[in-house]
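The pair is set out directly below:
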Amino acid sequence: MWPNRKLLDVLGIDLPIIQAPMAGANGSAMAIAVAKAGGLGSLPCAMLNPAKVRAEIGTIRHQTEKPINLNFFCHTLPTPDTNRDAAWKQHLTRYYDELGLDASVSAPAVTRAPFDEAMCDVIEDVKPEVVSFHFGLPAGHLLDRVKAAGSRVLGCATTVEEARWLEANGCDAIIAQGHEAGGHRGMFLGSDITTQAGTFALVPQVVDAVKVPVIAAGGIGDGRGIAAAFALGAAGAQIGTAYLLTRESLISDLHRKALGDARDDGTALTNLFSGRPARGLLNRVMRDIGPMSDLAPAFPTAGQALAPLKAAAEAEGLTDFTSLWAGQAASLCQETSSGDLTSQLAEAAARRLKALGLFG
């Protein structure tokens, strides 16, 4: 018996492990494998259109009826700012010149759409067991429709204040995202990354502040981390980076190689690739410019000017301009299947908790 079954009961899963939704890094195959193993498989939908979401959930349902999580972003689309876009591209001109690229040529627009009416229609039709949101929650009428469809709702908090807000606005469980986590920070009530708490500091404070189950996220890559999360009062763990080297991961070979060389001090929070703080492996552009820049356009448009540089560098086997999302525990990644990893994580955590007298 797990020491805290609140999350298992709320989500209808067997193992207290949520595979983090990682836009661009995982699709239906990983979600299926994790769900079959007893965890909560997640499908990131922020970069998909409604037709693609329907197709992916169709693939999932063809292979498993286990609970699945569909994840969406809740950002506000920025007002176009041509002057800021031009200043950002001008700041990158030296790289265009170095790679022999024409900086005047416009790159395709970056597509990361917030949850809207069309996606809500999809939720009502496919009725996923769980829907999670990043960067807050959607408008009240949309959230009401999601809950009316029977889906449990998860929200991501990076502070106690955000956790309380998410609970007050209808979340069934809270993901407490520590500073160590890879990918985008879920912060939405503030923007100061210098004050963000680590997982070990954040989780127990969120547990004390809310009544719903709390899911620990950030820097958890093995059974030791999961056991520690339970010791802090969490009811489960959300894990992303550890799945990046699995067979079902969609990351490039260059990203895989970079993860193989990962170190504890080899990541940083950066806004260069999207416009919002996200943790990834350090590379040339992050070192040259600095990982955070006031010149970077608002989310999600910053990556548009970097896209041609990324493509040209990758063609030469370089990740100088590539967003290599990863958390601080990237060196714990394993090359295995997502299903086997889920089982191994749960078994290792259970052994640790049993040794502590917390599992029985």
About this structure: The radius of gyration is 20 Å. Residues 338-355 form the longest helix (18 residues).
